[in-house]
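Our working data are protein records whose layout never changes between entries. An example says more than a description, so a record of this kind follows.
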Amino acid sequence: MPRRRHPQPGAHRLACRHHRSAGNCRGRAGRSRHAPRRTARDGPPRQAHHRSEDQQERALRPVLRYRRGQASGGTYVNTALANTPIVTGETPRPAGTPDPPRRSGPSNIEVLIPTFNEELNLPFALRSVVSWADAVYVVDSESTDRTQEIARRMGAKLVVQPWLGYAKQKNWALENLPLKADWIFILDADESITPELRDELIEIAQRPVAGIVESGFYVNRLTYFMGKPIRHCGFFPSYNLRFFKRGRAWYEDREVHEHMVVEGETRRLRHIMLHEDRRGLEHFIAKHNRYSTLEARELLRDRMGVKRGQARVLERGIALRRWLKYHVQPRLPVPGFWRFMYMYFVRLGFLDGIPGFRFSLLLSTYDFFISLKLAELKQLIAESRTEAAIAPAPRGLARPEGTVAPEAQPDVTEVQPATDRRAPSAGRVAVPPPPPVPVTRAVRAKWRHDDLGDRRPFVADDAATCPHPPISVIILTYNERDNIAPCIESCRWSDDIHVLDSGSTDGTRDIAESLGAKVYVNPFKSFGQQRNWAIDNIPVKHRWQFQVDADERFTPALVREMADRISDGRSIDNVVCYQCPSMMMFMDRWVRHAAEYPVYQVRLLDKERCRFEDYGHGQREVPDGPTGVLEMPYLHYSFSKGLEEWFDKHNRYSTLEATQALAEPPVELRRAVADLLSGDSVRRRRRLKALSYGMPAKSTVVMLYMMLLRLGFLDGKAGWNYARMRAIYEAMIAVKLSVYRDGARRGSGEGRITSHRRG
């Protein structure tokens, strides 16, 4: 009786990093864990042979050489496996039966590549397949960059299909494209096929299709993060079913992390493909932010029993991960912490060095995103908005991510430069300050009035009881459809309301005009420039103006204090601008301690004597005189557009912060000490922030500071979640700053950031 052969020879050549091959990967008594049990006729077991680190490195050298060839635009051809036979599990046929006819193409394989704004990745994917595949279809979701141009130039067949969703987009391609080859390979734009895998695919496809038992094949994938391979962290081996017989496979009905449903048997291929997204850290974080939103929706639908077409049989590793994700991870305390411990320690992520730490840290936040967004969806259900909570996402990830600036829009109102416009110049003549007016104790007591009714959002009914200070209001907007109406409602105390829009595409301007506001449009360049443009160009009615964001609301207490401070166009405090505290609202409550209340921003200013300059992701004031402080706050609904928008916004902010820190010049010790000992809290805070960029474990320090020293635990669950979100924000800044510094030292583009989208 001949010895039985394992149906997957060499399947663990790269999957099992400690053994030379599947036949040598042994468990107890020297028996292979991957092969059938030995019998007496099989003979004595062979001696196990463990691979050293040098042998493991040599095993991946062809892959690394191929990747370097890709990066340089060259090619690398490995012919070592050209004549290696591959066992495919053929079904025996009667003698004399002719082989089924083969396709006329050179490989009998067609490749599908779904894309959206993949100009940085697509050339590498196409270069790995166009030379040998019968046809390469690029199914584009209306990209706005050079993706379509690259696809045409490199010889692919371009098909434009509006985005349907991850699974639906690929299923549409499988059902509607004129596919002719017997075998299909679905390749993402950030992936590429190695020459070894190519030879293995062609060898299978050239065999008679009816003689191959398997209907689909799982392909191992090696992920690169910031240019370095991730061989641990639980990401290698990573098998995905990508190669299958035409008409025998489709994708399950899921919004994210969809897998293929195959009619027939499957097995693993021997060689690997490469996975590397070259769009940078900002896009990496934005992508997983979007994934977490879709994953939270999937979890909610699963708990509500919404029926969907899902794969019943999955590859063992995929099935285990999905079971853990649905039944274990949601029940663990401190979401994200266990993911980091698992990736970095249990799955030996520390062996991947600093890239492994960064990779584990960023992906551990993914679980926290999911848990927080799941709570947000449950809150929608509690508010009787179930349909909004479980409705499918309309566009998925097919939308601009990262540093993409909004398109310029034509002005909806003809703007004439104001007669008092002056260029920002250090030599301008200052307006003589008004004489100071004493502030009585009774007035200050009224400002400190702690009635919560005065700290609610201002509404139109309050106009009858509140004063009307001579102050113009300018609302800065960009795609604020959900916020603009309540913001204008809280401004009804003013007789001069203006909206400065940065080119919104969601109807913000129409809503503002319908509510009686005067609308102006100026393409966004930076926060400081946008605020200066408002000072210079909008013909306001009053000398004093309050610049407010659309997610902020006035309170009756603040309106009363401003009426007491500003009289006849003059400040009773003899100042040129006022810093105003904000109350951070999160999860339907005021996060007083964790949000470090009070945090001040200059909002009320004399347009003749105050300007702004860019700093970090925001701006800072440049007053031509002293600065005052208001005691009554405004409300800040930073999460009014959802957690996904908050994370996306702070992802962009972290890029700007890291860029600012990279460009920060060294400061003399004497000046730094003077700033730290200054009585000005804003000056002291800014110096501490600049010094903190080099602090090790800054995110952990920030979280402990907010929860313990600032008594954030008194804010309950809202304070805990807010502190973790702030810690994640600091971690994003630290990781990006570290990567940008490395890139700047190497002279690569990773240390240069050029354009940013309106926040």
Summary: The longest helix spans residues 716-746. DSSP finds 20 helices and 25 strands in the chain. The two ends are 72 Å apart (CA to CA). The chain has a mean pLDDT of 78.
